[in-house]
Amino acid sequence: MSKGKILVVDDDRLVLATLSYGLTQAGFEVIDADNGDDAILLAREHRPELALLDIRMEGLTGFDVAAYLREYLQTPFMFLSAFADEATVAKVKELGAVAYLVKPLDISQIVPAVEAAFARTAPPAAAPAAPVQPPSEVPAQLDPTAMAVGVLMHRYSLPRDEALTRLMGLAAADGHSVQEQARRIVDAVELLARPGQR
After folding, report:
1. In this structure, are residues 50 and 79 in contact, taking their beta carbons and an 8 Å threshold?
2. Can you tell me whether residue 129 is helix, strand or coil?
3. Of the candidates 15, 48, 115, 163, which lies 20 to 30 Å from 176 by C-alpha distance?
4. Where does the record place the Response regulatory domain (predicted)?
């Protein structure tokens, strides 16, 4: 059984073949393309669950493909690039990539990153994502982690996965569990929201 369907896009045929072979061996169903136009057509046809995109390609770039995937197909994506300059990293964050891998990379490093991305983006059976509810119906016992992620998304204009990553980073930096850190954020927000506080 396939671990998931992934679209791999790279204009370097050797890199593309290596990635496709390695991910297929690891149990993924791979659709590959060596340019952005084909990538979009294949994504529309096959609806992959994740895309692994090279950034700099002739014609449509990996950023162009990512913007399309996010806007029209809601497909999560990760970037694989030889470039790690500030402008590139800023654009990666702005687009909301689930991961950013810098070449050269061994397939043995890419497979775990892809598996982690699938784990983050797949709807888990045991812990469904917090349902979107009108504020009046939010139960008092709402999961503080989901609330804290929402606070961080709003405060820093982050996509959900980046907000969760930031929450985990804050927890690690402060030596708290994610749950405890989330509770502290929610408590702080509630404190600020109280009427008459000066």
Report:
1. no
2. coil
3. 115
4. 5-118
Structure tokens at 8: 């791999």
Is the pLDDT reported for residue 124 higher than 80? no
Residues 6+ apart with CB under 8 A from 65: 9, 36, 39, 40, 43, 51, 53, 77
What is the pTM (predicted TM-score) of this model? 0.61
| Residue 117 burial by Cβ neighbours in a 10 Å radius (0-12, 13-18, 19+) | buried
- C-alpha separations of 63 from 33, 100, 137, 157, 179 in Å: 15, 12, 38, 19, 34
- Characterize the bridge pairing of strands 5-9 and 50-54: parallel
Residue 158: burial class (beta carbons within 10 Å; 0-12, 13-18, 19+): middle
Top mean-pLDDT range of 17-26, 148-157, 166-175 = 17-26
Pairs from 122-127 (Cβ < 8 Å, separation ≥ 24): 122/4, 122/49
Residue 95 token pair = 């687009």
